[in-house]
Amino acid sequence: MRFAYDQFGLPVFQAEDKRLDALGSWLTTDISTHALVCLDALAMLSDVSQGRPPFEEWSSENYEVTFEPEGVSISNQWVDSEQGSYSLAEFRDALEQYWAFLRNSPGNPNLVREFRPDLAHWEAALLRWEEKWGRPHPDRGRLF
Fold first, then answer.
1. How far is CA 9 from the centre of its chain?
2. Contact call for residues 134 and 60 (beta carbons, < 8 A)
3. Longest Cα separation, the chain
4. pLDDT single digits (tens) 20-70
């Protein structure tokens, strides 16, 4: 799967395997440009990978996402054809690729951040995530 920004600065994806379309659509629309939301998904994936339930249910207006030890299922609540089930390894690969995409994006130069503007946008998001949930992110030391 490959990610880029369109002419409006919104993320888009390309996947040669059409089976990944629901996953790509979820990443680029539900997570979009929000590093904190991506960190939530990464933590939920880590939880289920280690045999624990996700720390919270996925909340979305458009997608139903279920994290289970057998894999992750995604279903668009408005588009019947947009659904899929993915192994944890397959989901992890796509999610980590998307995190790298977000992490390496330059961000909006016109955006003024109040929380830790001295840090890169992804570092500030990580600190905010850890502050919000009161624990180190499970991927700290591995992805960041």
1. 17
2. no
3. 44
4. 999 999 999 999 999 999 999 999 999 999 999 998 889 999 999 999 999
Taking CA 133 as the corner, what is the angle to CA 131 and CA 135, rounded to the nearest 5 degrees? 80
Condensed to tens digits (0 to 9), the pLDDT of residues 120-137 reads 899 999 999 999 999 999
Type of residue at 98 = Y
pLDDT of residue 16: 93
**Which structure tokens are listed for 46?**
């880590």
Whether 83 and 73 have beta carbons less than 8 Å apart is answered as: yes
State the Cα–Cα distance between residues 45 and 67, nearest whole angstrom: 7
CB 47 within 8 A of CB 53: yes
Q: Strand 83-86 relative to strand 71-76: parallel, antiparallel, unpaired? A: antiparallel
